[in-house]
Amino acid sequence: MASTSLSYLPSPPRHHLRRRLPSNLAFLSWRRTLAPTQLGLPSASPPPDSGRCCVPFPVRCTSQAAVATSLAPGTPVRPTSILVVGATGTLGRQVVRRALDEGYDVRCLVRPRPAPADFLRDWGAIVVNGDLSKPETIPATLVGIHTIIDCATGRPEEPIRTVDWEGKVALIQCAKAMGIEKYVFYSIHNCDKHPEVPLMEIKHCTEKFLHDSGLSYLIIRLCGFMQGLIGQYAVPILEEKSVWGTDAPTRIAYMDTQDIARLTFIAARNEKINKKLLTFAGPRAWTTQEVITLCERLAGQDANITTVPVSILKFTRQLTRFFQWTNDVADRLAFSEVLSSDTVFSAPMKETYELLGVDQNDIVTLERYMQDYFTNILKKLKDLKAQSKQTDIFF
What we know:
Elements: E1 81-85, H1 92-101, E2 105-110, H2 118-123, E3 126-129, E4 147-150, H3 160-177, E5 182-188, H4 198-212, E6 217-222, H5 227-238, E7 242-246, E8 251-252, H6 257-269, E9 276-280, H7 288-299, E10 304-308, H8 310-320, H9 327-339, E11 344-345, H10 350-356, H11 366-390
Parallel strand pairs: 1-2, 1-4, 2-3, 4-5, 5-6, 6-9, 7-10, 8-11
């Protein structure tokens, strides 16, 4: 009888298997030392040439990489078999759709949830239950997989370290032990320059851990998603609700997640881009006020803007640090401070376009993305209004 850890996976054909899954999971060596840091993250002495990754605060990170032993090589898996982690997220779902459109065999690792991710199955993907915060659920999901595309991040209500550090360490160790051919990891632009921000420091430490794991990998640093601007600015303006912003001149080069997914697969198939770090940025960096002005013009109405001074964010973060149960809130506010500071989240893309063989004119601009959204949504609102008027006619 199959073990319970394998019960939710369909039995793949033998020619898909790279290695059989050991019953005792003895290959999974996840040893870590907890230090009394404010985040309580794994700590150890930094490896040689590790840079600034391992710092006294807020993250000390070197978990030991797993070593596969006593595993006979099996039949190589097909290069088209991929596992998407975080498949229900803003970026993850676009990665899944792109992969299916390009003919990949897509498996999605999804946490057990009250509302199943049926839309992924409807698209043609295989959905398996697993949880990065429970390492014992991971190995079975990797059987027969060639490439992992890691789009996962923690939920707002849970500690950052649970998924974004401890879960990723477990996933990378399992990938190494199971002989995964390639690991694609999404990180944050300039994460190595902000050790004071837990999420960004964790991303940088994960990059280092992946580099030291011995896996073939691709790290992609991102600046921002255009999709996130819809709920943040476009919808509130249309519904005449408050639009929240800060008084900081931060500039962000937003990118359409569909373009990110497309460029990801181009890069993943390029054998010359192995163990590389790429940064994806949109055609132009925008301030919050510029985005709001664009939305106002396309919506044909003014926004009700509520400005939150950066000083308020800093004070709130310092206040929440006093209480253990609000530490996670403080960690996320630290990230908000960076996004609200005088920084530019952008990077030149000319060399990246040349490396990938992509025409920069094919990359969606924010103006075009927002124009398409407002054109479609305003047309729907107009149609609904017309239908509403027709129902008011009586004979």
